[in-house]
Design a protein that fits this description.
The chain is of the alpha+beta class. The chain contains 18 helices and 20 strands. A hairpin with a 4-residue loop joins strand 11 (373-374) and strand 12. The chain binds 6-diazenyl-5-OXO-L-norleucine (DON).
Length: 535
């Protein structure tokens, strides 16, 4: 018995094979991430970072932060020109966008603290090494994505890298990554020293130097993942365990759930203007706090006891008007416009035979990170530096603005929205879920939770149901194309909301445990490759 829900069938099956061979959810989470680094190169990674929330069968919960950190030579104004203006693209493409990767250190920390001891570290690498060495047939989605980023690959990388070929990629093409296979073999035999020191570390630094970057051997050697107290939120009979800072996810979900309390009306349904208005107004206020206050706690004093206290949130809610949208201008700083592209991150949900649960979100930030691939390592580097506030008030790739709390500083972790989540109902494991989607991660998770627990949808409907999102600025409800009827749009417009349409919000990977203990997997149909593997 066991289940893995992930963004690619081959990765989900890799995790499942570990569960079948006596591995636990932690072992499977490692093998799935490694396989994703091969078969889902746009977001699966060795050159990025992530978060793990883990619940042992006895209910003990852990959270691991293996977020990337800014290199020692990073500077708060490194993405501004001499006139203090943001240099477009510098924080998203090319080597300066890359922060020090955390993934490999995170995998080793997971293995040492939570692994079953029944499966060796090396065995966890086998499926990924085989997929990289012998190749695998790419899906239609991957072909589309590889073709879309062809020019970027060509601009930053040698012509013989495996993602460049003379003719366009088509479904079923074989993708072989020999270089990556040998890096995986090295980490399999040397643990994370094989990545952060020696030839792979040198390959990363050499790549960085070739592109005039600032990554050093010392940056790599000094990287450390951090076990953190998981963020937990009580909501009625549910308890949500999720990621605290440097993820903003726990704070946002905690604030929104407290602000809406039991005010949603299940009878009116999920798409009733009063319910949408209520959720939107709570999201608007929570995202304003994200921008003002949140950042790496090693560099800021952030009093979560205040930000999550009922008194503080009651105060924030004082200007809520059931009939009218509050203007984001009256809550905070400057507006701007947002262009929505397809971003990429990836989430894995796992439950093993003993009921241990792993919820992992990992990313390079944008598709294929900063697009720079390490020739002697075989992997892409992230573009996570863009998650810092590169200039107060200037929107990042996701349209998020921030403040000093999230300014760039050497060794600092950039604020994230990734929110791997595990939910208990009356003390029992109830749901494991997460999603990609930048800032829409938090609101997507929130909606799946509310769809199920307030509006009575089963897990499949809760996941597939269309979604919307508000993040304070831009002052718009971003709404999936089929989410709101003309009547609902009219009712919300009358209240003063601006509606914009987006193609899709998030890709949830969820496992629901019903009252008999049966696992039900739900992989989001917004993407074609998402997959539930179970035995
Ligand atoms: O950490 C963050 O919030 C972002 N780097 C996540 C990016 C993301 O979710 C892209 N995926 N669709």
């Amino acid at each position: 018995m066991g289940m893995v829900v992930a963004a690619h069938p081959l990765a989900a099956e890799a995790g499942l094979s570990i569960l079948r061979h006596n591995g636990n959810a932690a072992d499977a989470a490692i093998a799935t991430q490694l396989a994703l680094a091969v078969v889902y190169p746009r977001a699966g990674n060795l050159g990025g970072g992530g978060f793990l929330v883990y619940r042992e069968a006895d209910g003990k919960v852990h959270s691991l932060d293996y977020r990337e950190v800014a290199p020692a030579a990073a500077d708060r104004d490194m993405f501004l020109d001499s006139a203090g203006q943001v240099v477009t693209g510098l924080s998203t493409k090319g080597i300066l966008a890359a922060a020090v990767p955390g993934t490999v250190a995170g995998l080793e920390a997971t293995f040492r603290k939570l692994g079953s001891g029944q499966v060796s570290w090396e065995a966890l690498f086998k499926p990924a090494i085989d997929l990289a060495e012998s190749g695998f047939h790419i899906t239609a989605e991957e072909a589309e994505r590889l073709n879309k980023y062809r020019d970027d690959f060509a601009a930053f990388n040698p012509p013989d890298m495996p993602f460049l070929k003379a003719t366009p990629w088509v479904t079923g093409d074989l993708l072989v990554q020999k270089r990556l296979a040998s890096t995986l073999r090295k980490i399999a035999s040397e643990f994370c020293k094989g990545f952060y020191e020696g030839t792979i570390a040198e390959a990363i630094v050499e790549t960085s130097e070739t592109h005039n970057g600032i990554l050093t051997l010392n940056d790599l050697e000094s990287y450390r993942p951090i076990w953190r107290t998981p963020c937990h939120i009580y909501h009625g009979e549910y308890r949500l365990y999720t990621m605290g800072l440097p993820s903003s996810g726990g704070v946002i979900i905690g604030q929104v759930l407290q602000m809406i309390g039991d005010k949603l009306d299940p009878e009116k349904g999920f798409r009733h203007p009063d319910n949408v208005h209520l959720i939107t107004e709570a999201e608007r206020r929570a995202f304003a706090d994200r921008a003002h206050f949140l950042g790496d706690t090693a560099f800021n004093t952030i009093n979560l006891n205040i930000l999550l206290s009922p008194e503080y949130l009651l105060e924030k809610w004082m200007d809520f008007d059931p009939e009218k949208a509050t203007s984001s201008q009256t809550i905070g700083i400057n507006p701007y416009t947002l262009t929505l592209e397809k971003f990429e991150t990836t989430h894995i949900s796992i439950v093993d035979r003993n009921g241990c649960a792993a919820s992992v979100t990992t990313t390079l930030n944008d598709n294929y990170g900063c697009k720079v691939w390490v020739p002697n390592g075989g992997f892409f580097l992230n573009n996570e530096m863009d998650d810092f506030t590169i200039k107060p008030g200037a929107p990042n790739f996701y349209g998020l603005v921030g403040s000093e709390a999230n300014a760039i500083a050497p060794g600092k972790r950039m604020l994230s929205s990734m929110t791997p989540t595990i939910i208990e109902k009356r003390g029992k494991l109830y749901m494991v879920l997460g999603t990609p989607g930048g800032p829409t991660i938090t609101t997507s998770i929130l909606q799946v939770f509310l769809n199920n627990t307030v509006f009575g949808m089963d897990i499949h409907d809760a996941v597939q149901s269309s979604r919307y999102h508000h993040q304070w600025f831009p002052d718009q409800i971003q709404c999936e194309e089929n989410a709101f009827s003309p009547k609902l749009v009219e009712a919300l417009s009358t209240k003063g909301h601006n509606i914009t349409w987006v193609k899709s919000l998030g890709t949830i990977e969820a496992i629901y445990i019903d009252s008999t203990g049966t696992m039900v997997g739900a992989a989001d149909r917004r993407r074609m490759d998402d997959h539930v593997a179970a035995w």
